[in-house]
């Protein structure tokens, strides 16, 4: 007799959820004929709970210019914080990244809370006028409070920090079908890129960074102008002569429609106000950060008022591209939260701007909820990934020593110092360095000799008719 063998009845295999994907469709870039692909991808606002409100992340892909594209694309991380990468793609951006598209897709994702990814925007301008606001406090408490109350109806403001956004980005990477990626970040975008490397190290092939800001740098250093005086220097001439600027007591200023050499100014009203020394300093600070424009900063209260009106327009809602709510969440949760009273007094003593600007932000953050920042956020990032870091010698926002400190725990990194650059630089030489680095996947053998040829423009001393400037 053959004994019966008892066999377990197989249970139905649990359904395996299909991997989410992104459906990309043809789309256009303003004033450009390039082929682009656009799509959206939903994520939970609360990634931990995995329930409740969802955010639709806006994505734009510039396909590689060859059919035999490399499998690892370039993901571009925008600055700010508060700017959207995908929403900021213009004809100029397309042309800038053309060399990098020779073999790779270039991917732009609006970070949660920016661009078209559930943007956290609110107008802070007094009476709706960014021009008038340029003469007052940059972040008035009552307007910050009103902004918070408006945005809390549509968002949990604590959930728009950099670490959460980098988990979003990795989910998008997976949905697009990329196993590994290259990261390209400038200013705040470099901080975000480093945080992605910390959280998802196995997914990173290389990082190309400029104006390097990292969580490993003390947050107080990112917000105060250092006593080193870097922020006070502007190029005096082609031979490298520098002049030290000092805050001045300015009288009434008239905001004119524009200032020669500063096409980004959006002020269109004729407004009278009084510019304080700190206000004038705040206007000049971003102005001297752009290499090509730093030779012609505006003179007098009227010019400073016009320049600052354009800068304030971005922060107060005059620019649709800037998400003030996301800026405040990141700034208040990740930077201001770690600044002490002793830090302010010690670091601002003898500086160009003084204590005013950081105190404005600290007061604003008293009105804003803070997100949870994970343990280790401020610790140096350690990774064998290849990293190229470009630093401007005259950069006050992200001084070169930030990148130098980060490099100590990145054995395959290389920092290139640009002697005549500040915070923003878009020269072909530097773009091509980035493209060459990403193509090779290594910074070791890069030919960086072109950096030595870069010069700041001569300092403008007088104005000709018809708005032209002359050195």
Structure description:
- The chain is an alpha/beta fold and 471 residues long.
- The chain folds into two domains: 25-119 and 158-220 and 375-453, Alpha/Beta hydrolase fold, catalytic domain (Rossmann fold, 3-Layer(aba) Sandwich), CATH 3.40.50; 131-146 and 237-372, no CATH class.
- 28% of the residues lie in helices and 15% in strands.
- The protein is built from 13 helices and 15 strands.
- It has helices at residues 91-96, 130-133, 141-151, 162-176, 188-199, 219-223, 277-287, 300-316, 324-335, 341-348, 356-365, 400-407, 428-440; strands at 25-27, 36-44, 54-62, 74-77, 106-109, 181-186, 204-210, 233-235, 242-244, 252-254, 272-274, 387-392, 413-418, 462-463, 469-470.
- The strands form four sheets. A nine-stranded mixed β-sheet has the order 1-2-3-5-4-6-7-12-13, sandwiched between helices. The protein has a two-stranded antiparallel sheet with strand order 8-9.
- A hairpin with a 6-residue loop joins strand 8 (233-235) and strand 9 (242-244).
- The radius of gyration is 24 Å and the shape is globular.
- The chain starts with 24 loop residues before the first strand and ends with a strand.
Question: How are the strands ordered across the major sheet?
Answer: 1-2-3-5-4-6-7-12-13
Which H/E pattern describes the elements? EEEEHEHHHEHEHEEEEHHHHHEHEHEE
Number of domains: 2
What structural category arises from helix and sheet content?
Answer: alpha/beta
Q: Kindly state the mean pLDDT as a whole number?
A: 77
Largest sheet: 9 strands, mixed
Terminal CA distance reads: 109 Å
Radius of gyration: 24 Å
């Amino acid at each position: 007799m053959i004994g019966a063998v008892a066999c377990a009845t197989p249970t139905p295999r649990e359904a395996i959820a299909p991997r989410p994907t992104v459906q990309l469709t043809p789309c256009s870039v303003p004033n450009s004929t390039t082929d682009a692909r656009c799509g959206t991808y939903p994520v939970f606002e609360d990634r931990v709970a995995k329930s409740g409100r969802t955010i639709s992340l806006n994505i734009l892909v510039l396909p590689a210019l060859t059919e035999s594209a490399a499998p690892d694309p370039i993901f571009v991380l925008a600055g700010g914080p508060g700017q959207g990468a995908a929403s900021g793609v213009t004809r100029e951006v397309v042309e800038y990244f053309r060399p990098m598209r020779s073999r790779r897709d270039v991917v732009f994702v609006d970070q949660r809370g920016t661009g078209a990814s559930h943007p956290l925007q609110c107008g802070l301008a007094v009476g709706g006028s960014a021009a008038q606001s340029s003469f007052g406090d940059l972040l008035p408490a009552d307007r910050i409070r009103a902004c918070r109350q408006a945005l809390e109806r549509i968002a949990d403001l604590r959930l728009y920090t950099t670490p959460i956004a980098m988990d979003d980005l990795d989910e998008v990477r997976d949905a697009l079908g990329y196993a590994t990626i290259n990261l390209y970040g400038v200013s705040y975008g470099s901080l975000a890129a480093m945080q992605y490397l910390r959280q998802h190290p196995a997914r990173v092939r290389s990082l190309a960074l400029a104006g390097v800001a990292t969580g490993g740098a003390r947050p107080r250093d990112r917000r105060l102008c250092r006593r080193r005086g870097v922020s006070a220097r502007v190029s005096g001439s082609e031979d490298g002569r520098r002049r030290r600027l000092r805050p001045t007591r300015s009288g009434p200023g008239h905001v004119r429609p524009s200032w020669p050499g500063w096409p980004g100014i959006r002020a269109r009203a004729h407004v009278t106000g009084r510019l304080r020394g700190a206000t004038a300093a705040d206007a000049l600070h971003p102005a001297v950060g752009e290499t090509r424009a730093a030779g012609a900063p505006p003179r007098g209260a009227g010019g400073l008022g016009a320049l600052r009106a354009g800068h304030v327009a971005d922060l107060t809602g005059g620019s649709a591209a800037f998400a003030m709510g996301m800026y405040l969440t990141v700034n208040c949760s990740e930077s201001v939260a770690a600044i002490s009273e002793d830090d302010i007094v010690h670091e601002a003593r003898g500086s160009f701007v003084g204590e005013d600007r950081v105190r404005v932000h600290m007061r604003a953050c008293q009105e804003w909820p803070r997100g949870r920042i994970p343990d280790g956020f401020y610790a140096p990032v350690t990774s064998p990934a290849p990293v190229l870091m470009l630093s401007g010698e005259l950069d006050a926002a992200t001084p070169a020593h930030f990148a130098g400190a980060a490099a100590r725990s990145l054995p395959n990194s290389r920092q290139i110092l640009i002697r005549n650059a500040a915070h923003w630089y878009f020269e072909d030489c530097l773009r091509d360095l980035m493209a060459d680095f990403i193509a090779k996947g290594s910074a070791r053998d890069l030919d960086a000799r072109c950096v030595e040829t870069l010069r700041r423009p001569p300092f403008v001393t007088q104005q000709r008719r018809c708005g032209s400037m002359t050195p």
